[in-house]
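hey
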């Protein structure tokens, strides 16, 4: 298949002259007796007049069976709104600060599909790639018209070199999006899925961590996670994002023995919160990794700080609480 047959439009509209050109281009194949290639809608454009942001609608796993088959991996539903697929990089033996990083601590790729009231689909994700995989993966996204909204690091001085790529597409053809993602994953060494393992006891005082953080944590493949979401309604263009999509603060604790933990995660902030959060993290003895955006058209504009620390798990959680309190978040339900 040629790139033009599956390329999606992720560029903003440029006014009436461009619309006339696109309309003529779409009409030409019809006049010639052939079907036009599928196109995704431009970011923030639904193709119809709207008096307000377009809301996501609930779906079930059954709706996404074809997407799962195309991706070659099973997914699950998050809050009945997001079809979510996890792709942990178990193949990458990553070390940072002399700690062997478990995939669930900081090496998890994730993609989520959301259906909207106008029957369009939004896909957003965060993909972990080795440095030699970055350009081939990027090229695959471009071939399928899937946008890149951020390329950056989540860890300090890691070996081997790893990058995190945030992806975004919106349109009426979720299978084309899934094919593009699969093409990208196939240009990496992302391993096939494993059946979920039952929770194992952690050498951490998880109850103490939860009490200190003010959130009920969860188990994820050997990692204890405390997750928060923004209280505000967050939009992407004219799409309302489901709570937790592109707007979470995550505090991940990996047991190191004797109650010690490696901490990795990120805080979602609006501009006026950034300074206070950075100050609170440094006062907690936490190392700052990066400050950046994950999206292009979110409102309110969100900033994310990634961080790293090693210490007693409960002591770290207590020290982190002021950073959480400086942001307008609630524990995820």
């Amino acid at each position: 298949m040629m790139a033009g047959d599956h390329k999606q439009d992720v560029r903003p509209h440029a006014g009436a002259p461009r619309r006339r050109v696109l309309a003529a281009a779409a009409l030409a194949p019809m006049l010639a007796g052939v079907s036009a290639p599928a196109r995704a809608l431009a970011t923030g454009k639904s193709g119809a007049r709207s008096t307000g942001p377009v809301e996501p609608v609930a779906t079930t796993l059954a709706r996404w069976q074809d997407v799962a088959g195309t991706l070659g991996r099973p997914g699950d539903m998050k809050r009945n709104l997001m079809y979510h697929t996890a792709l942990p990089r178990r193949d990458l033996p990553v070390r940072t600060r002399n700690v062997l990083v478990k995939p669930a601590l900081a090496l998890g790729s994730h993609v989520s599909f959301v259906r909207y009231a106008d029957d369009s689909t939004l896909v957003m994700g965060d993909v972990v790639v080795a440095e030699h995989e970055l350009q081939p993966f990027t090229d695959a996204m471009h071939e399928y018209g899937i946008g890149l909204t951020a390329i950056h690091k989540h860890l300090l001085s890691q070996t081997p070199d790893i990058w995190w790529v945030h992806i975004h597409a919106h349109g009426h053809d979720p299978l084309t999006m899934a094919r593009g993602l699969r093409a990208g994953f196939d240009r990496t060494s992302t391993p096939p899925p494993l059946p979920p393992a039952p929770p194992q006891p952690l050498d951490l005082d998880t109850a103490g961590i939860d009490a200190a953080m003010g959130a009920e944590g969860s188990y994820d493949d050997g990692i204890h996670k405390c997750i928060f979401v923004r209280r505000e309604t967050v939009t992407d263009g004219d799409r309302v994002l489901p709570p937790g999509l592109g707007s979470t603060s995550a505090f991940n604790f990996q047991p190191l023995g004797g109650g010690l933990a490696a901490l990795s995660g990120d805080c979602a902030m609006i501009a006026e919160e950034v300074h206070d959060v950075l100050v609170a993290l440094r006062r907690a003895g936490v190392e700052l990794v990066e400050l950046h955006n994950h999206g292009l058209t979110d409102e309110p504009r969100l900033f994310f700080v990634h961080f790293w620390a090693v210490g007693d798990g409960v002591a770290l959680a207590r020290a982190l609480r002021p950073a959480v309190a400086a942001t307008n978040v609630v524990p995820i339900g």
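DSSP finds nine helices and 18 strands in the chain. Residues 1-5, 9-40, 42-48 have pLDDT under 50 and may be disordered.
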